[in-house]
Amino acid sequence: MADIKFYSGESFPLEMHKVCIVQKLNLLPIEQRRIAIDEAGNNTFLLKNRDVYLDMLTDSGVNAMSDRQQAAMLVADDSYAGSETFFRLERVIQDIFGTRFFLPAHQGRACENIIAQVFVKPGTVVATNYHFTTTKAHVTLNGGSIEEIYKADALEITSDKPFKGDIDLEKLRALIQRQGAEQIAFVRIEAGTNLIGGQPVSLANMRDVHQLCQKHGIPLVLDASLLADNLYFNKLREPECRDMSLREITRTMAGLCDLIYFSARKLGCARGGGMCMNSEEIYKRIRDKIVLYEGFLTYGGMSVREIEAIAVGLEETMDMDMISQGPQFIRFMVEQLVEKGIPVITPPGGLGCHLDAGAFLPHLSQAQYPAGALAAALYLVSGVRGMERGTLSEQRNADGSERYSDMELLRLALPRRVFTMSQVKYAIDRIVWLYEHRALVGGLRFVEEPELLRFFFGRLAPTSDWQDRLVAQFRTDLGDSL
Ligand SMILES: *Cc1c(COP(=O)(O)O)cnc(C)c1O
Fold first, then answer.
1. Which of 115, 132, 195, 453 is the pocket-test mutation for ligand 1 (most atoms within 8 Å of CB)?
2. Most buried of 206, 231, 243, 399, CB within 10 angstroms?
3. Which residues pair with 125 in a beta bridge?
4. Are residues 36 and 80 in the same domain?
5. Domain containing 184 — which CATH number?
């Protein structure tokens, strides 16, 4: 995005694109939203999109495509085997990452399923800067466990540390000592880190981790799903990257890793996924599983139209104008909320704006799912749909007890290039109103609790009549506004 100085002294990001296609949105009156959230079991995953005004649930598969992506979808080559479309994507991947081999999969977790099956044996450990929900589920399903080796400051809500996603090398050394290198299935770097606020990883840290892994013969795996945002921050915050092109940074990173996988629902702004590597041995071990779980090697469960869109989308990821809108809008939102005294994760990261539900609702214990309650409350007062990233998103311990999350967050994703500044301002306005009436917000309890990934379809109920009181207060303050 262009670095524009405004004569007025104001400061806000300026888009380097224009809107070509629009989609109509609905904003229901609060009474109807009250019914909708009740029917959804107070789980924002279960809301119907037609009842949502701003869908800030996720950045997955909902990023705006470019005109060039849309155009490419019309010339896709549909065939089971040997599709020209596939080879186009393969060439782009080889060019961007500099790797020899590419294997397609239908989305990020499909890669994780296969990687876990290939590398994780019962009793082994996957060391990572921070887990992602689906990653952890696949690792544990294969009998492994996750060890998080983030730095001490990674979980500080308020911070000015530029790379909170970095791995703590001392923790990694200690883990290797304790477990023995052969018990570590792989080290996984998630760049950027989804669950701790889209915080980036530095290139320097990746280099150090690579050296340590190399020395002990431990494979290094990069989850590049959120790489676009991470690259933006490398370029902006890391001195050695300032004079490198995005292409150079990407290639340097890739050169440090044995295996790279990504969700193309995020990276490349389409829908799909894939893995790339230089080692023929790793390629062959993974290849056999692709045909079993995903499809033939030249589509891997993806539509060829999406493959075309990914190829163009990945190319466009190498353009600073194309990847800046998300992080810059997020920074605007975070800075506005900080100014109003609202607890959010700082510094601003990628993916979205993360409200600290623990500090927003200090009167709720973690057993009352404060982040889930805040998600339901914000939808109620605004029609904005966020995602709980707290205790609800954890799995219970083996003995059935709650596993309380490190952070209770409400994530408000800003899908790339989707929302306008006035929509972001509307969301800020309603968050400020809710913060001023936070004492009214009560907790949630489970009515129906699935065993695996319970946050997706679990149903909850408010622990009191707090939602009715919130609606009444809204009417008192805002009259007959929607
Ligand atoms: C979204 C995401 C995944 C999973 O990708 P899907 O395409 O949703 O299956 C894995 N890792 C990270 C860091 C993600 O953000």
1. 132
2. 231
3. 145, 184
4. no
5. 3.40.640.10
- Could you tell me if 49 and 160 lie in one domain? no
- Per the structure, the count of domains in the chain is 2
| Both structure tokens of 324 | 């800046």
The Cα 186–Cα 218 span in angstroms is: 6
Q: Are residues 325 and 464 in the same domain?
A: yes
The binding-site residues of ligand 1, defined as CB within 6 angstroms of any ligand atom, are 60, 107-109, 132, 134, 190, 194, 223, 225-226, 263, 265-266, 273
State whether 307 and 437 are in the same domain. no
Cβ(256)–Cβ(263) under 8 Å? Answer: no
CA of 108 to the centre of ligand 1 (A): 5
Residue 85: domain span = 67-316
Residues 434, 378 contacting (CB under 8 angstroms): yes
51, 166, 223, 356: the active-site residue: 223
Buried b (16+ CB within 10 A) or exposed e, 418-445: bbeeebbebbbebbeebbeebebbbbbe
294 and 415 co-located in one domain: no
Report the atom number in ligand 1 closest to the C-alpha of 109: 9
How many whole angstroms from its chain centre is CA 359?
A: 22
Active site includes 133?
yes
| Pair 172, 185 in one domain | yes
Residues 310 and 369 both lie in one domain: no
Residue 138 C-alpha to ligand 1 middle, in angstroms? Answer: 12
Q: Is residue 427 part of a domain?
A: yes
Asked which of 316, 339, 373 is the last residue of a domain, the reply is: 316
Residue 413: what pLDDT?
A: 98
Using the predicted structure, report yes or no on whether residue 34 has a pLDDT greater than 80: yes
Per-residue pLDDT reduced to its tens digit, 357-415: 999 999 999 999 999 999 999 999 999 999 999 999 998 998 999 999 999 999 999 99
pTM: 0.95
307 and 334 assigned to the same domain: no
In the reported structure, the alpha carbon of residue 58 is separated from the centroid of ligand 1 by a whole-number distance in angstroms of 10
180-190: average pLDDT: 98
Helices 370-382 and 421-436: crossing angle in degrees, nearest 10, is: 120
Residue with tokens 């998600």: 375
- Is the per-residue pLDDT at 1 higher than 70? no
